[in-house]
């Protein structure tokens, strides 16, 4: 069963009552959550019940060795995450045999967080879990909890592989929420090509957070990155300190603001959560680590710095405020981005619309293969397991045997390597061993960065922020997996840029679109980070573009692309339009708008456009999934192409700039320096594509 209702609607109570009944009857409960913060919050609530028979415990990366031994022997309500289930609980299932035999219920909380590649991995982990339960003779009930989602039953079935009933009626009372859409003003600063720049959403957030803290309004400010969380907290504290000096505000006012993000020590995170609940902290700048389910009663306002990726996340973040029944305030602050611009000018796209269908692809062979190896290492696979893991299993198993990863015998498939099979599956989609961030002068390990992200986040010259301290990357050694950094204050941030080439491997589906054609299929993408931009932190002003020498990366993935025949584009060229610039501008804007129709972030996808692509022989615009094997985003774009491309054209048309800016057609990732771009040409090109008559523009 999946319960898909709004925030603070009583979902926790709906699974907690039967779960506690099962515990009192001698059973065990497995509770899965995407974040440690939510597990800690649930454990606090369980402990407050003070039931002698209830032995609840968390089991995650923060659990000590001594605590793990106690949990394994005694816990009957286990709170953990997919990572620990994948790497520890399932591979060492024999050590947990007593727990599995008595397992009555599996609670998958905040399951709308399981989307894209991560969600596809979790889907296969849950299938491995079902297999382990069968091994020990238990048939637990799966109960999923989610913020309101489109087609929740269908999503839950794809996630678990089981038929699912859905509960979607929400009659819970709550206070009124005033929702504001806030577009930062254009500044006098100019970016690439002389384009006007808006004030950064993080700077606006810091101003608003300071104002709300001064008014004694407890506020969460959601931002898009760890770096932004640190930046907003530091800027807000500085503004409050100025008030202490200038107007004699209370001296402890700056201390009422902090940052919260992944990467902090467990005790630091728990301390921040406690201080915020008690009111000792009034303002908290956070990543989406606090988006899911953590109960913060008395929270009055939420600031959301930039579109969070989905309507589900938007309402989840906004729903953090007003949980105690009081009225609340939510503010969406637009970034200099095509989608954010579209939303503040088209509020009907947010309000009164259903949330998105959650996209995941459990049959992705790059996801399925490693989990079949892990399952075979747990218990040898048999032909009866083929149905459990899905229709692509037989073909993927054959490939694993050919590659020598599994051995096939008459009784099934076996893992024979001494290596850990679970190491093959990187469920967070990182890919490869993490790069260690080390302070060069002391040798101190500051943190880690996943290997693909290293090219863009810890390249030589990058600004790296850790717990409020700024560091400059001195050297990135990819061979050793180490980024050496030195402490240093800067007034700028860095953004990596790459160039991309793409080749068509196979068109799986296609249909006419206007005078052109729309395709979905397999492609090979070669990307290389070639430089990085320096932008002033507070204003976004461009300070420079520094070259980099990094190796290219290749991935096979899925893409959606559209083509226009020569007969449709020749009249545009005769009118003096720059076809390459028009296609390039349309590509950038389309990437920016796809997250409105697929549950993704613009950084999960990429694009290529060309006036004449060698594989199609036509003007072609590609948008592809940035994950090996694909993540379902491009496929969703193919299914919603007409709505998606119509919104793309409207976003370009509604932007108030003359020739193009970051709010419509410029991209922070563009390796070509956002050249050439033709805003008027993109509007004409999309009008032709979306018209039934090639001459209609």
TrEMBL record:
Assigned keywords, A-Z: ATP-binding, Helicase, Hydrolase, Nucleotide-binding
Boundaries of each Helicase ATP-binding domain copy?
1-167
Q: Pfam families from the xrefs?
A: DEAD (PF00270), Helicase_C (PF00271), MZB (PF09369), WHD_HRQ1 (PF22982)
Originating organism: Streptosporangium brasiliense
Q: Does Nucleotide-binding count among this protein's keywords?
A: yes
> Which SUPFAM superfamilies does the record associate with it?
P-loop containing nucleoside triphosphate hydrolases
Q: What is this protein called?
A: DEAD/DEAH box helicase domain-containing protein
Q: What does the organism's lineage look like at the top?
A: Bacteria, Bacillati, Actinomycetota, Actinomycetes, Streptosporangiales
Mind telling me which InterPro entries this protein's record contains?
Answer: DEAD/DEAH_box_helicase_dom, Helicase_ATP-bd, Helicase_C-like, Helicase_put_actinobac, HRQ1_WHD, MZB, P-loop_NTPase
